[in-house]
Each structure stands twice: as structure tokens, then as C-alpha cells.
Amino acid sequence: MQYVQTLSPAGLGRMKPGVALFTGKAEKAPRAPGRSPGRPTREQIAARNQELMDKALDLFLQNGFEATTIDAISGAIGMSRRTIYARYGDKTTLFKAALQQAIDEWIVPVAQLHAAEREDLQETLLSIARLWVNKLRTPSGMRLLRIANTEIFRMPEIAAYLWDRMAEPTSGYLADLFRRRLRPGQDVPDAEDAAGAFLLMVVLGSVQSTAWESVSHADFDRHIIYRTRLFLTGARDGALAGL
Fold it and tell me: What is the pLDDT of residues 6-36, one digit of tens each?
């Protein structure tokens, strides 16, 4: 239950927008025009930096943050320690930069959630749940889950960034969706509560199944359908709206 608790809207609270794990090092004065012979191009530098972050994240996952050293990263990628320190300053900054990139690659943009809307609300919610859960079922998604579970309490800014990039936009979209379509012709004062319940019950509940259970694709999808129907049965009733 650790992951559900760490990423749940109720557990995190509302964070201020614009949270970032990696903000970069101070900019240096621009170099003179031209490039010295033998110096790598910008494209080569970018590709090499991407390789550095990918390998660093792999090692952080495999060995944990504390046990992963700059020396180990340097040896694994064939890049000098001096270059790594020049780019990121220290191990923590490199870790946050790599993790931020992994999160940004994993999130489902709100525009994609809007595009998933169907005439039938249940089908809309199933599409949204599948978008998120299928993201997690990728190798990068599973890697992100494991790292977040391990480091989120030691570095609370990870929780803030996850909320800012994942939970808050999705929760906001769902609340708007429920106001429009959960109980046609009625006010939905509990729209935000319903959004949080859907994330916990359907999305994050399915995430836990992905992380800890070995189930077939058919059984896994059946679980998503069951949770969505169960959620809608209670949410459409509205009996809890006044609590």
C-alpha cells in the first residue's frame, strides 16, 4: 500500500504549480563564435548526456541511491567524473534530473485525456484508466514506480513533482468531467472527492496490481472494468455528497 499512499491526492495535499526537481546549474558566459577542432557538436553532447541520465537511472534503480556512486556511473558509461560533476554538480542533482525526465516521459497530458472522452461516461473512464495504467506497464513506468517508492520519503520534493505533473492535472480534469457528466441535470458538489476516489480506486489500485501481481492482460483489464463499474455505481448515487 506504500505507493498508493505516497501518490494519493489525500496523502500529498495540494502543491503549488511549477514544482521542479532539476533546475539546472548556473549558466556560464557564452563562448566565442566557432568550435575548436575535435570538439563534439551540440547534438553529440545532447546524445551523450541522454546516455548518462539513462545509465544513471538504471544504476540508481539497481543499487539504490545511497549505494550508487559517481565512480560507478562514470565507469558504466565511460565518461569522466570531471565531466559528470561539471554537468550536474553532485549525485543528488544528477538523480533528480534523471528522475524528472523519467516522470515527464511517463505522464499522460491532459489533452490526451480530453481526446479519450466518449459519449458513454464509463467508456471514457475506462479509456483514461487504461491510458495511465498502460503507461506504468512500460519498463520506464515500472522503473519510476520502484524509484519513487524507495526515495519519496527521503526526498519529499519527488512527491511534490509527481503531484504537480501527474495527480493534480489528472484530478482537475476528472473533477471537471464529473461536474459535466456524472449526474446530468444536477449539481455535483463532490466532484473533487469523486476525482480523488477514482484515482485511488481505479488508477492507483490497478497500478498496485501491475507492480505486485502477475496477471494476464485479459484478467488485468477485467480488474479495471470491475473497479470502474464499482466506482460509478457509488458516484452516480450522490448519497455521500453531503458528508
Answer: 444 444 344 445 677 777 765 555 555 555 5
Number of Cβ atoms within 10 Å of the Cβ of 113: 19
CB–CB of 187/238 below 8 Å?
Answer: no
Instruction: Write down the residue that cell numbers 511517463 correspond to.
Output: 106
Parse the chain into domains and list their residue ranges.
Answer: 2-14+103-237, 42-98
**CATH fit for domain 42-98, picks 1.10.238.10, 3.10.20.30, 1.10.10.60, 3.40.50.300:** 1.10.10.60
Nearest alpha-carbon partner for 105 in 49, 53, 176? 53
Query: DSSP alpha helices (H): ranges in the chain?
Result: 2-7, 9-12, 42-63, 70-77, 81-88, 91-106, 110-115, 121-136, 139-151, 156-162, 168-181, 191-198, 205-212, 217-237
Mean pLDDT of 125-143: 82
CATH code that applies to domain 2-14+103-237: 1.10.357.10
The amino acid at 237: D
Dihedral sign of CA atoms 208, 210, 214, 216 in order: positive
